[in-house]
Amino acid sequence: MTFILPQKIVCGSFLRTKGNIMLKIAKFGGTSLATAEQMKKVRDIINADMSRRIIVPSAPGKAHKDDVKITDLLLMIHEKVKMNQSFDNEWDRIVSRFQTMIKDLNLDIDLSSELKTTKDKILSGAGEDYIVSRGEAINGRILAALLGAEFVEAGDVIIINSSGKVHPSSYEKVLSRCSDSGKRYVIPGFYGKNEEGEIRTLSRGGSDVTGAVAANALSADLYENWTDVSGFMMTDPRIIPEAATIQQITYQELRDLAYMGAGVLHDEAIFPVQEKGIPINIRNTNRPLDDGTLILPSRDSSTQKICGISGVKGFTAFTIKKAMRNADLSLSRKIVELFESHDILAEHILSGIDTVTVVVKENGLELKKDKIIEGLKALEVDEVKVDDKMSLVAMVGNGMKFLPNLMTDLFSSLAAEGVTLRMIDFGSSDQNIIIGVDEADHNKAIKGIYKSIPSK
Amino acid sequence: MTFILPQKIVCGSFLRTKGNIMLKIAKFGGTSLATAEQMKKVRDIINADMSRRIIVPSAPGKAHKDDVKITDLLLMIHEKVKMNQSFDNEWDRIVSRFQTMIKDLNLDIDLSSELKTTKDKILSGAGEDYIVSRGEAINGRILAALLGAEFVEAGDVIIINSSGKVHPSSYEKVLSRCSDSGKRYVIPGFYGKNEEGEIRTLSRGGSDVTGAVAANALSADLYENWTDVSGFMMTDPRIIPEAATIQQITYQELRDLAYMGAGVLHDEAIFPVQEKGIPINIRNTNRPLDDGTLILPSRDSSTQKICGISGVKGFTAFTIKKAMRNADLSLSRKIVELFESHDILAEHILSGIDTVTVVVKENGLELKKDKIIEGLKALEVDEVKVDDKMSLVAMVGNGMKFLPNLMTDLFSSLAAEGVTLRMIDFGSSDQNIIIGVDEADHNKAIKGIYKSIPSK
């Protein structure tokens, strides 16, 4: 697989450029900003590339293994405020961490009055969203000082609607606020304001979304997402510790892996950049020379068709047997309708010659199961069979139909692991093949699939 | 595979017996009865086993390669009658064939007056069903004479309802008419009477149905179906000339093969015997020592999981792509509903992570295709893709989930044949796996699957 290191190219084939000047958004996660030492790494990374124009920091993560993340301390404060308890311990801990950082970084700023104002606001009844967003807000001030960059109050540019999503008006606000191409800006992640001007947070991990919105707003060439791993692994490293890093993956492939259980960026952090075809680069602050994972609108899959494997447990299969079921034009519809009427999504529908199987998530099913079985029996079928504890595992990639040995390698590898196949659903998309196995075979299935991939 | 020759056992494990006396129904096809020479083989077969109590003959088939089947001659007569043309040529040919047979068999019967009456009835406007059923009716007389058996007028015992199916009252009529356990009976196949007493035929090949009804009526131990092949082949011999004969197969497996395109017994010839768990034995009149194929309620599949392969061309796949389709609880139902509203059966429904595919028969689709695409687009999907000219090929058997190397062998064999897989649908039943391939790959797919079966 050929990998093109984004910062080394000016007019790369997959990176769009504004004339010859590239524009990058760099978001840094909590572990990248947890200590002065980490902050210095971040500073060096940013200073190495002038095209990193907007920096989006998270709140500081754990400074050491037994530490508590700033955001978790803020959540504790919120809990104590609710119960009218003193939160001095937690607050002092937060203040101490920030002050230590400022001192260790030899920064010539004093956040005492800002911290005092914040505490006063909390004491006078500020809401949860205000409280938990202070980690990013204060950290943003420190990072801006460290970089000599302009701090942008997220509340001024990120507008969050009543359902907690970014309002499209944010794009225009970010663009006009960060319009000076000679300047570098720091926008704290995770929060903004609602249309009434109150601080609102995005869902946890929302700094990824802030970065994506900034990338869209400025039509960036690249959205860098700096974290503590050198990109996404091809599969869960708890199952395959030696899993290879994904070098290139498309938005769609990433979403497929995420849907099937992989913990990657959430959809709202992808759609704003996907909309403009902006690549995302997952990078490691602690190993800045690693290429990381590049998420692209499309990729050359000629040498690497498969990009990842993920799996989810907790599915139940309802199988209906009916002789001559194909003579009954309305049977499939009635079956699907029955599940819909119980508010259960038919994740997969399989069919044999005289059978139909509907695979659904077990979550939320228990209380509805008997009613569903009853409903299926009422369709005058010969037999209803329920098989639970199924795990669905997906192999995600591109052009699977045209990889002649893929199925052979896949199924021989699964057989070698001793996996009993409960289902195979392939053909709707040639970008994924979904197999069903016993939950007990979940890890073995992922191992089997992983081993079957020729080049990794 | 162990095969138990039915006529050699008295209390076989799978053959039920009346005390120690077995009871068999033997149906003979047209080629088995086409000439005096063939008739003698039939006589020898029947006389070799006293338990063959009811014999069901078809009309004589072709006596030689360029000959015409009696039933086809009768159809020509019907056509000529409709157009007020003389049918003497065809009639004389029929009379000559029957008279030659009687003479060659040295039978002491004279059917002249019966033949005369028949011709008169045709001339005076007898219906199509009367005309085309005369092959069986007259042949039954000859066979009864040859065997010294009692001729049973099919019209007296087989009652056919207005939709051309056997009325259940037939069972009781056959049972009481053929109650003498010391006698052998000949019931001509293919026809009966309606409730108004008029001659009615079953669909073509209906003699199989007559035999099945007789087997059910007498709760036979075995229903023998004598033909000109030594049982069913595992797959289409035009594709695999060396295809092995199926030794044992269940009713369900047979139906699965038939549904997927294999030309075997039709459903109405199976349900009456399946209902009573009566095995069917497909035998070869020309090779009476061959075991043939035994169709059973269930079989021991421990040594032979796969029993056959069949395939049908002419499918089209409609694929709908919708980002986050799983968030739309009603999408699957709306899609299935759309096809139902166009009177199109969703044969298979496949799903990827953001895609759903509905596979339908092309037959009857052409005029509805554009409307369906329009309807799918109206569901606010991102993309609708139509792929036609797909062939579905099924591997039919038992216990596929527990055959660890089945998938490996199957897909490596398909890859070796150069088959590109368009779909795999497995898991609803562990008795069949259905794959989709380009129609151009149809024969290669069947070859690939056939070669992958370890023991045949």
Automatic annotation (TrEMBL), chains A, B:
Start and end residues of each Aspartate/glutamate/uridylate kinase domain: 22-284
InterPro entries according to UniProt: AceGlu_kinase-like_sf, ACT-like_dom_sf, ACT_Aspartokinase, Asp/Glu/Uridylate_kinase, Asp_kin_monofn, Asp_kinase, Aspartate_kinase_CS
CC annotations in GO: cytosol
Record-linked SUPFAM superfamilies: ACT-like, Carbamate kinase-like
E.C. designation(s): 2.7.2.4
Enzyme class name: transferase
Domain Aspartokinase ACT, residue spans: 393-451
Pathway it works in: Amino-acid biosynthesis; L-lysine biosynthesis via DAP pathway; (S)-tetrahydrodipicolinate from L-aspartate: step 1/4; Amino-acid biosynthesis; L-threonine biosynthesis; L-threonine from L-aspartate: step 1/5; Amino-acid biosynthesis; L-methionine biosynthesis via de novo pathway; L-homoserine from L-aspartate: step 1/3
Residues involved in ATP binding: K27, F28, G29, G30, T227, D228, R238
Residues holding substrate: T71, E136
Keyword list, A-Z: Amino-acid biosynthesis, ATP-binding, Kinase, Nucleotide-binding, Transferase
Entry-linked Pfam families: AA_kinase, ACT_9
PROSITE patterns: ASPARTOKINASE
Gene Ontology biological process: homoserine biosynthetic process; lysine biosynthetic process via diaminopimelate; threonine biosynthetic process
A Gene Ontology molecular function term of the record: ATP binding
Catalytically driven reaction(s): L-aspartate + ATP = 4-phospho-L-aspartate + ADP
Protein family membership: Belongs to the aspartokinase family.
Protein name: Aspartokinase
Organism: Oceanispirochaeta crateris
